[in-house]
Amino acid sequence: MGPMQFISETWRLYGVAARNDGIANVDNIDDAALSAAGYLCWRGKDLATPRGWITALRAYNNSVIYARAVRDWATAYAAGHPL
């Protein structure tokens, strides 16, 4: 569901309203991104470490290939490289 591809149960547990309007909308990119960040922090514990990143990403999608791809995209994006 939505741009961050939440499943219904995960959205029910982690969905938050980024705009402080009290309405968490899975199709709103701000709500979805903040909810995904919260989910990753909760699952990965410490996103400041490489291990924490991979743990969080594998909790989102239990695939080493997926976790490495997302890590690489995020690293490139943070460095200002085109994706």
From TrEMBL:
Ranges in coiled-coil conformation: none
Keywords associated with the record: Lipoprotein
InterPro entries, A to Z: Lysozyme-like_dom_sf (IPR023346), MltB-like (IPR043426)
One Gene Ontology molecular-function label: peptidoglycan lytic transglycosylase activity
Top-level taxon of origin: Bacteria
Keyword Lipoprotein in record: yes
Gene Ontology biological-process entries: peptidoglycan catabolic process
Name of this protein: Lipoprotein LpqU
Organism: Mycobacterium tuberculosis
Taxonomic path: Bacteria, Bacillati, Actinomycetota, Actinomycetes, Mycobacteriales
Gene expressing this chain: lpqU
